[in-house]
Amino acid sequence: MRILQFFITRIFLKRWILVLGMILLLFLANYLSFTTARSIISTYQGYQEMETLNQEGTFIANLDPDSEADFGKFKIDDTQKVYEYLNNNYTYALRADGFVTPLDNKHNMEVSFNYINEEAYKLNQFKLSQGNQLTFNYNFNKEKIPVLVGAGLATTYPVGSNIEITDPVTQQLVNLKVQGVLKKNTRRSNFYAPNSKNYFNFSIFIPVNEKFIQSAGLDLHVNSLMDIALLDSTKEKSMNLKEHIQENLGLEFNFFSQQENFNYFEDYYVNSLKIICTITFILLIIIVCLATWNTLVSIRLMIKDFTINLLVGLSYSKLRAIFYSYFGILFSINLAILFVITAFDRYGFWLRKDSTFATYGIFGLISKDWIALLIVLFIDFIIGFTIVELTIKKIKSIPISVGVLK
Amino acid sequence: MNSIIKLEIQKKVFKKKGLSILNDFELEVERGERLSIIGESGVGKTSLLNIIGLLDTKYQGSYNLFGSSVKDLSQNKLAEWRNQKIGFVLQESALINSLTIEDNIKLPLMYANIEKDQTVQEHFKRIINKIGIEPILKKKPLECSGGQRSRAVFARAVIMNPQLILSDEPTASLDLENKEKIINLLFDMNKEFNTTVITVTHDLDLANRHERIITLERNE
After folding, report:
1. For position B149, which CATH number holds?
2. In chain A, what residues touch B50 (CB-CB under 8 Å)?
3. For A374, which of A176, A193, A226, A309 is 20 to 30 Å away at the CA?
C-alpha cells in the first residue's frame, strides 16, 4: 500500500497531464461501453415485451406513414362505428397511454391515465406489489371503477382508497377505487423503438370495457387504434378492418403479422445493434491503443525513475501489482463518475416532475443501469489486463541497467 | 578463502547488436575486498556490473553470490537481495528528480518496509551526519550541486548496510574535492563494515586505490 501510494503520488501524478489523459481515455471507453450495453439491455427488454404479441394470428395496427390524417375532421359517430365493428367481429387488445391529468400526490408529479382492455391486460401481465389484479366487469357510471396505481402513488392512494375525478377521455366525473399497486418501475416499451420505455410509477390504469369505450371521446378512440392488436385473427380479417377504418375515418392502417414484426425487428433493430456493437468495439480498440500509447509514453518518460526503483528493491511482480492497482483506481474513479452521471440523470426526471421517466432504484439506478455498469466493469478488466500486460512487457524489454542512469 | 562472488561467464550475447562480450570470463571476489574493473568503452564493464548486481541474468554461465546460485533465485528474491545486500553507487544523476533528497535516500527502506523502525531512523541520521548532507535533505536533486547529489546517491547505496557495494564511475563528473569525499566514504565503509567494494571506472587514479584491478579487454 505504501509503495502504491508512493508510485501514485510521487511518480505518476508528477506527470499529471498523462494521468488526466489516461482518465479521459478510460472514461470515454467506459461511457461508450455503458451506453451501448444499456441500449442492448433495453432493446432486449423491449423485444421480450414484443414477443408476447408475436403469436400466430396476432396483427398489430400501424398508421401508414403516407396516410393523410386530419384528426380535426373525425366525428365520434365514425369512430363509434369502427369500435362497433371491432367488438362484433374481433378479439383485440387495446391500450392508450399518457392522458396526463392533474391529481394531488405526495411527489407533486403529473399523473397519467392509461386505458387498457382485458385482452391487452392479459398480454401484459402486470406484477403487483399490493392488492388485486384488475377486473373488467364493472358497470360504468353505476359502480366505482377498479384501478391500479403506480408505486409512486401508493402512499397517497393506497389500496382501498377512492379517487373522484373527471376522467379525461369520457369527460365525466368518475369514482375510482384503488384495487392494486403496480410493482416499482413497471414499464412498457415502444413497439417500434424497443429501447424506449415509459414507466408507470405515476400512472393509473383504468380497465376499459365495451361500455367505457362507448362513453369515451375521440381521443381514446383514435389513440387506441394506433396500437390496437388483433388477436386470433387472419390476414384477410385484418384487411377487412383496414378497409372499414379507411371508409369511416379515411385513415390507412397497416396490420403487421407476427412474422412481419419479427422481420422488422431483425432488419432494423438487430442490424442497427450489430452496427452499434461493431462501432463501439472499433472505438474501444482505438481507445485502448491510445491508452496503451499514453502508458508507453509515460514509461519512456519515467524509465529512469523505474530503473532506480528496480535497483533498490522493486521487482517486476510488485510493479505489475502497482500497475493493476493504479488502473483499478483509475477505473474506479471512472465508474464512480459514470454512476454519478447516471444517478443524476435519473434524479433529473424527478426534479423536472417528468412522471414518464421517474424511476425507483438502488442509489437512483435501475436494474438495467446496474447490469450495464457490471458489463463496463467486465470490459474494464479486459482493458486493464491488456494495458498492464503490454506495459510490463514493454518495461521488461528495456533491460535494467546502471547504464540507463549515466 | 571467503569468496562471496564466484562468477563464470561463457559469454554474454546482445542479440540486437549481434555482439558477444565477456567470453570465458571468470571472477572470484572475497568478502571485504576492494576491486576495480577498468577497460576501454564497450568492453563490457557496465554489463559485468549489471550481472554482479543481479540486474541481468541473461548470460551463459554460472554465478554464485553469498553462497547461493543466482540462477536458482526468483525475481522477487533478486529484488530483495538488491534491496538488502547490494548497494549501487552511481553517478550523481541517479536520483529521482521529483523526490526530495531524503525520500531518495529512504527509497530502499520503503521496499524493505522498515521506514518507521527506530533503529533504522538512528542509522539514517548517523549516515547523514557522516556524509554531511543534512542541510539538503528537504531539497530536490536539481536544487543541489553535483557533489551533494553524489553524496546523496552514496547515502542511498549504504542506507541498508549492504555486504556488497557496486560503484559505476562514481566520481565521473566531480571536482577533486568531491571526488576525494566520495572515495573516502567508499573506503571507510569497506574498513568499518568489511563491505566488499567493486568499482568500474576509467579513472586510473581511482582504480589504483583498490586492492586489485581487473582489466577487461575486447574479444578478438
Report:
1. 3.40.50.300
2. 399-403
3. A193
Q: What does the pLDDT read at residue B1?
A: 56
Cβ contact A399–B56 (<8 Å): yes
ipTM: 0.90
- DSSP code of A405? G
Q: Give the gap in angstroms from C-alpha A326 to the nearest C-alpha of chain B.
A: 18
In chain A, what are the domain boundaries? 2-50+264-399, 68-251
**Pick from A161, A197, A158, A207: nearest CA to A181:** A158
Residues A130, A180 contacting (CB under 8 angstroms): yes
What are B5-61's pLDDT values in tens digits?
A: 999 998 888 777 778 888 889 999 999 999 999 998 888 888 899 999 999 888 899
Residue listed under C-alpha cell 403506480: A150
A272: pLDDT confidence band, cut at 50, 70 and 90? confident
Of residues B91, B93, B110, nearest to A6 (C-beta):
B110
Query: A241: which residues sit within 8 A by CB, 6+ positions away?
Result: A85, A86, A89, A90, A230, A253, A255
Q: Which of residues 123-142 of B touch A (CB under 8 A)?
A: none
How many domains is chain B built from? 1
Interval A96-146: pLDDT, tens: 988 898 899 999 999 999 999 999 999 888 999 999 999 999 998 888 999
Q: For residues B185 and B96, which has the higher predicted lDDT (pLDDT)? A: B96
Q: Which three cell numbers stand for residue B209?
A: 586505490
Q: Can you read off the three cell numbers belonging to residue A310? A: 528496480
Contact (Cβ atoms closer than 8 angstroms) between residue A207 and residue A42: no
Neighbours of B97 (CB within 10 A): 13
- Asked if A400 and B56 come within 8 Å (Cβ–Cβ), the reply is yes
